[in-house]
Specification:
Blueprint (H helix, E strand, L loop, with lengths): L1 E5 L2 H15 L3 E4 L6 H10 L7 E4 L1 E4 L9 H10 L6 E3 L8 H14 L5 E4 L21 E4 L2 H11 L8 E4 L2 H4 L4 E6 L5 H9 L17 E6 L14 E4 L4
Helix pairs in contact: 1-2
């Protein structure tokens, strides 16, 4: 894995946008949450995505009204799809009655697109990527999952109350994520420091879902200094550091 350390969350944006532009993705996998937002603003500002680029959601909540602004499709539409000229957005059909069938259909849709060229990820305090909570199999495909209490608590700030946070989602599985040709994980803030340290210092384990990335050949972690403060030996200025595969 590669680690790029920057000073502030804002500084992650140009770095991630530059990495995406370098790959010229035909299919771009997009996570939501606060960490990737600076990157999406910079991607929009640069305007280097081709009009034919397909944006594929990493996950989507179950149980929100079709018009809800909290749906991840709606958030990506606001942040990227519309500003970049109505890019095509693909995601799981969480309104389907048969949710496992909806998950399988999205897995097939990703395959039909030829797979994801670049997948942008965030990381949860408990090490989840997507909504793959601790205990998820490294070989998992797109599936229905129940959100951990810690994850719902962290996401309550977006909803105004814990009670309003959905309890389930459809998420790309860890095995699905690993099929992306390149992965860029963004981490910002001291609340992510334990997860970032664990990602680079602990052996792969289903107790830390993000640790599956240690088996991928092209992963770049872009993190601000607060998210990296538990890692030893970082120099005092932003730097490009490499971490060997386990």
């Amino acid at each position: 894995m590669h680690l790029i350390v920057v000073d502030t969350p804002f500084d992650t944006g140009p770095v991630v946008a530059g990495l995406v532009a370098d790959h010229r993705p035909r299919v771009l996998g997009v996570a939501t949450g606060s960490s990737p937002e600076p990157a999406y603003r910079e991607i929009v500002r640069l305007g280097e995505l081709a009009p034919s680029t397909v944006l594929c959601l990493l996950d989507e909540y179950i149980g929100l009204a079709p018009g809800s602004a909290h749906r991840y499709r709606a958030q990506i539409e606001r942040q990227m799809g519309g500003p970049l000229g109505a890019l095509r957005i693909e995601g799981p059909d969480v309104d389907r009655a048969d949710l496992p069938s909806a998950a399988a259909a999205y897995e097939q849709a990703l395959a039909d697109l030829g797979g994801v060229d670049v997948q942008i990820l965030g990381i949860g305090r408990n090490g989840h990527i997507g909504f793959n909570e601790p205990g998820t199999s490294f070989s998992s495909r797109t599936h229905v999952t129940t959100l951990a209490a810690e994850t719902r608590h962290d996401n309550a700030r977006f909803f105004g109350s814990l009670a309003a946070v959905p309890t389930q989602s459809i998420t790309q599985g860890l095995g699905t994520i690993m099929r992306a040709r390149a992965i860029v994980l963004v981490a910002a803030g001291s609340s992510k420091a334990v997860a970032v340290e664990s990602l680079f210092t602990r052996p792969p384990s289903i107790d830390l879902p993000a640790s599956v990335l240690q088996f991928h050949g092209e992963v770049t972690v872009v993190a601000d200094r607060a998210a990296c403060h538990l890692l030893e030996g970082l120099p005092p200025h932003p730097v490009y550091v490499t971490q060997e595969q386990p």
